[in-house]
UniProtKB/TrEMBL annotation:
Source organism superkingdom: Bacteria
CDD domains membership: RAMP_I_III
Keywords: Antiviral defense
Protein name: CRISPR type III-associated protein domain-containing protein
Length: 224
């Protein structure tokens, strides 16, 4: 068994809307997800959402390499009947941003308006103006993945399933709703990885991924 811990940052490159299905005081029809902490309202992306997005990216990556086994996916992410080996934290603003925004967290949000669309005709519905709340861009969220997995073949000391997980992290480019409107663009930076007490720095991780990407491309070509 191997103990795994991954720390990463999510850089928000456009405004974000993660819907709650709720409005506010007749002013906002669609609020974005947030959590009250120390009397301040901060945006958040729940861990189960992160887990679902990564599971989808992981499956895509496995299918490219011709590996359709669900056992690997289940061992990491779990299923309806089985607990996975990994825990996925919420995405929350890093502590430095929270400190700088103390008593000013309302500046993180903006209210946008738009028209509902008739899907079949792609035209605006008459008298169906709505408002939705978005989170400002250029924010940095932090995330953590940790847990225990079975020992596997390693690539430069990183278990192969975790190597694929790191690639899946870098594959995440969008989150939240209203993506056609350009919301939810992101970039992700893996800060450090720890495996059974052995620490891999940001620089080491990037180098390992670059060095082994050729192996992945070869797998894709061979299974194409």
């Amino acid at each position: 068994m191997a103990n795994i811990m991954i720390e990463y940052n999510v850089n928000l490159q456009s405004m974000l809307h993660v819907g709650t299905g709720e409005g506010f005081a007749g002013i906002i029809d669609r609020k974005t997800l947030s959590r009250i902490k120390e009397n301040e309202r901060y945006p958040i992306v729940f861990g189960h959402t992160v887990k679902g997005m990564l599971r989808d990216e992981y499956r895509k990556l496995l299918s490219l390499t011709g590996n359709s086994s669900l056992d690997i996916v289940e061992s990491l992410f779990g299923s309806e009947k089985k607990q996975g080996g990994l825990y996925f934290s919420h995405w929350e603003l890093n502590d430095e941003i929270k400190e700088n925004l103390r008593d000013k967290a309302n500046m993180l949000y903006e209210v946008k308006s738009g028209n509902q669309i008739v899907r079949g005709r792609r035209v605006a519905k008459s008298e169906h103006l709505y408002t939705h709340e978005v989170v400002q861009n250029n924010l940095v969220f932090k995330g953590i993945i940790n847990g225990i997995i079975k020992e596997e073949i390693t690539l430069n000391g990183i278990p192969k399933p975790i190597y694929y997980l790191l690639l899946s992290l870098y594959s995440l480019k969008r989150v939240g709703g209203r993506r056609r409107a350009g919301l939810g663009h992101l970039s992700l930076l893996i800060k450090k990885v720890e495996i059974d007490g052995k620490l891999f720095s940001e620089r080491q991780i990037n180098q390992l991924l670059e060095n082994n990407i050729a192996n992945l491309v070869e797998e894709v070509v061979n299974n194409g």
